[in-house]
Amino acid sequence: MADDKSIIDNETNNEVPFSGALENKASENSRRKFLGQAAVTSAVIVAGSASAGNLPPDVPNWSRTLGKPVNTNPYGVPSKYEEDVVRKRVPWLTPDSIASISFTPLAEINGMISPNGLAFERDHGGVPTIDPKDHRLMIHGLVDKPLILTMEDIKRYPNVSRIHFIECPANSAMEWKGPQVGRLQFTHGMTNCCEWTGVPLKTILEEVGVKPEGK
How far is CA 127 from the centre of its chain? Predict the structure, then answer.
């Protein structure tokens, strides 16, 4: 048990002793020195393996030199320090990786929006590579005006953006018979919350005109 002259760091349970000079209210310089030392000590404890030369009051290395040129990555990519924040699969869960599942790293995501690149996948025939120039949407049958639309045609319609929460019905299924994999990503990672933008189906159906018997 620590006495009243020490504080406990919640993460490491390490005691950071108070300086006896703190008890002397007249010694303002000692007080300031103690506070400065305590701040540095706390920073080291929290930082863990951080490089000491990058911690206050030192100027960190990245502030001593110029950074990368603008547009080094024409399409933004995650920081290299986020390399472990990725979708993962459980190899023994399915016979192969074609008809399989990848799990969203829920515990590593901040905020309610799941980045598109981390949205869980559930595929039965792999992920197709579709050339937008060749893709067509054909609407026929019980409609007044059958249509075949290209992607460029579809983009001309008014679109909307909405935030949708999506969850696979089998989410948490691996735990139904008891604990299997002790990580949130694998127990509940078949879910995500993303922003979606597109043309509502209602808009397209109004264009082709659905016959009464087709409703």
Answer: 21
What's the N-to-C CA distance of the chain in angstroms? 74
The first and second tokens of residue 42, run together, are: 């706390």
Q: What is the number of structural domains in the chain? A: 2
- Enclosing domain of residue 14: 6-62
User: What's this model's pTM, rounded to 2 decimal places?
Assistant: 0.68
Together in a domain, 105 and 196: yes
Give tens-digit pLDDT for 135-180.
Answer: 999 999 999 999 999 999 999 999 999 999 999 999 998 888 777 7
> Which residues does 56 contact at the CB level (< 8 Å), separation at least 6?
39, 40, 43
Neighbours of 134 (CB within 10 A): 8
Evaluated on CA atoms 62, 68, 74, 77, the torsion sign reads negative
Is 79 within the bounds of a domain? no
